[in-house]
Design goal:
Blueprint (H helix, E strand, L loop, with lengths): L1 E7 L5 H10 L3 E4 H8 L5 H10 L12 H8 L3 H29 L3 E5 L14 E6 L2 H10 L4 H9 L4 H7 L2 E4 L4 H11 L5
Parallel strand pairs: 1-3, 1-4, 2-3, 4-5
């Protein structure tokens, strides 16, 4: 099985790229989705987050108040490190288990979407890494369109490795400045269809 890592800056097109790879026949797991599952009510990670940061980060139904926690952890690097220490090992266990299951099933191609792929030091586990990227202004416009404030955008971008470094470290770069047709052409040059 060929295993690809997919990374890039926030708002730069990872989800769109993942969908193109699914259409190409790849099995895809997104670590952002795994992270959401890990903080559902009753999950040990959610209990640990509440014990570490306080129960005020849970709503009346016991669900994580994600935006409230994000406001704290993106403004405080030490708080972010504490949250990552809770979540990252569990996220890595989850995607590695999924990859192992796909290998056992004989899947020919699998992709793991990891925004912090290089930051977490897992690049050697992949046959190749694709980095999606766009200009800083396009990134900013996309994040504003999501309803993020300029301050939220600044803090989120600062929490990640500079995109220029990710591009240099990746095996392939997909530039997402143009429309989906151009995005798809680039992805499909990198990844042949799964037979």
């Amino acid at each position: 099985m060929k295993l690809l890592g997919l990374t890039g800056g926030v708002g730069m097109g990872k989800s769109a790229c993942a969908q193109l790879l699914r259409w190409r026949g790849a099995a895809v797991v997104d670590t952002d989705e795994l992270a959401r599952e890990l903080v559902e009510p009753g999950q040990p990670a959610l209990q640990e987050i509440a014990a570490t940061f306080g129960r005020e980060f849970l709503d009346a139904e016991g669900r994580l108040r994600r935006e409230a926690l994000a406001h704290v952890v993106f403004a405080d690097p030490e708080a972010r490190r504490r949250l990552e220490a809770i979540l990252h090992p569990r996220i890595q266990d989850a995607w590695r288990a999924q990859v192992a299951a796909w290998r056992a099933e004989g899947k020919p191609l699998a992709v793991v979407v990891i925004p912090l792929l290089f930051e977490t030091g897992v690049e050697k586990e992949f046959d190749a890494v694709i980095c999606v990227a766009c200009s800083a202004e396009t990134q900013r416009q996309r994040l504003l369109a999501r309803g993020w404030s300029p301050e939220q955008i600044k803090l989120r971008i600062a929490a990640q490795m500079p995109i220029e470094e990710k591009m240099l470290r990746a095996n392939y770069v997909v530039w997402t400045e143009a429309g989906m047709d151009v995005h798809a052409q680039q992805v499909y040059r990198i990844v042949p269809p799964v037979r």
